[in-house]
Queue: 2 jobs
Job 1
Amino acid sequence: MVKAFVVGKFLPFHKGHEAMIHFALTKCDLLTVLICCSDKENIPESIRKKWIEKSFEGYKNIEVKSFNYLENELPNTSESSTEVSKIWSLVFKKMFPDYTLFVSSEKYGDFVAGYMNIRHIFFDESRALFPVSASAIRSDLFANWKFLPDSVKHDFVIKVVLLGTESTGKSILTQQLAQHYNCSLVSEAGRDIIDDSNEFSFNDLHLVATEHAKKIDEAVLGKSPLIIIDTDIHITKSYAQFIFEKKLDVDDDIIKSNQANLYLYLGNDAPYMQDGTRLNQIERNFLDLSHREILQRHKIDTIEIWGNWTNRFDCAVKEIDSLLLKRAVL
């Protein structure tokens, strides 16, 4: 029986790592993936472990373990030097006394395997198959989004939600912002399911909540880490309270899908436009109060956007740019 191991920080886990693990699985009967977690890193081992386990669900000949260490006691594992490799080979020898194979894409793989007196197999050392590194992803998430497995994207996606009462330009602004940032968008599910704001059932709101969360989850796996979302679950809850005077209860998964990094609330000073399917202007303004009350009750902090259409776009871009600047480095 051939036992093999791979090691890494997986900050974050990417498709190059994923491919290396798939490759290693073809070379052994049992593979252990070891996550080396230092006290200087800001992504918990539990999250890194979840990424890998999710990507290899159903595989029975793989196990994922973690090793926590202090950088003032052990050197950084990513250094390709003989001295560092010698120190870490002693750690690995204790953990894997009967393992005979080490698979890596780094030069230190040869050093470690040599000190352990086991075999080493390189995988894509030149990174020709997957021209990416974890450090490159950390420095430019947008350019390297395509290299993240689906299991990782949920933890790095940036969600911006546009909120507001009817006829405040949410749908148009969502499209404008998505085009401006060349990113994914989620349109309002309510407009697909409910034809007229004056005629729908309470059960329709459950369908809206479920479908909207589904659309958000699909967008997370899309082309960009940024998603602009038209409306969210709090607005659906507000409709339930405003129209039916009933509380809309939904599963925790729906709440989680709707959680966002930035909430922009469009004021009702926009010109009212009645297309025959909306509430009248008086009801629309009372609905605005309902939305605000629900958001306050759920402790959702919003940034107000007022003014004409140009001003709304400019203000939204300013807030999103500020958010992206904060998220520039993982």
Job 2
Amino acid sequence: MNLNPFRFWNRKIIFLSLFLSLSLVGASPLGAQTAGFAYVANSSAGAIGSVSAYTINATTGALTPVPGSPFAAGSEAFSVAVSPNGQFAYVANAASTSNDVSAYTINATTGALTPIPGSPFAAGSLPVSVAVSPNGQFAYVANSFSDDVSAYTINATTGALTPVPGSPFAAGGAPVSVTVHPSGQFAYVVNQASNDVSAYTINATTGALTPVPGSPFAAGSVANSVAVTANGQFAYVANAGSFNVSAYTINATTGALTPVPGSPFAAGFQPESVAVNANGQFAYVANQVSSDVSAYTINATTGALTPVPGSPFAAGAFPVSVTTTAPVSSCKHDDEERDRDERGDGDEHSKDHEQGDDGHKGHKKHGCHHSGEMDFEEHDNRKMHESERGR
């Protein structure tokens, strides 16, 4: 282990920026009152860590501790991630007495955590960030002192972790943040000491990481956090030392990063965390020293950031992490039908809508979608009409 003065200073920054990590997971309703669960990794230097678990009230958003919470983790629990299916939770334990990953099954009804047999699973030195692939097959952990990334396959039945052949994989200096591309094809790791981003292709069968040509890609000073838009087009990195945000376009074929024109974009003092909202319209950065949040609109074509009017917005003292929620799933179509039903004219409209004036079947099966997204049927019908216009 290289215990040079920079690393000691670097470790202090890590503790400030990653003291708490929160993950949200959906769940089956509890009497139609619960929107899901929230999990928070609680770290205390040199002490045994824990995970606080809460149910989320679907109406008010209030948090209620899950019975048995907090649940024991390893020393200095730093980061928590939940599998996409909501069955498993993983916590990176950073202390030298741990250097491992605690794994749990999640009770779908209560949200309670139960250690998975074999947990905790060994990681590298100072694991500070954990991410799960979108398909739930693989988990990745950034190890800050050993300058590498531990990769695991996830047992679909038990949630147990098995090291991927070749793991751990080399990263840059002091990797502190890892994320997986929405397609599951690429992984990105922010290296705080070398001020860059390591990019990898993910082997779809084994989960092994292979550096993307041109990797690592330059970032700003003391790069701390990385976020990728849901459509996979852009990536953003918060740079605590240079007080800005690096923006990149992502090559859909290779995963390579290309700086967005105008990048980096100014932020507040010591930006520690960056997040992008679910529809990719906005980015948010928590600025620790200036105690505020920088907000930006994202140019859908270029990925460039433009400050939102009124930005930065005041936060509490020393904010170190920011996240956003997904928009509430709702259907304007369903809302309109409900209103018509209340007026008593819903049946007639439903028949008209199902058949359509042009003889085509209408959108009887609409299906809810998030703001800014089209129904698959709407997309297909639009393509059909465009094709007909072309003829």
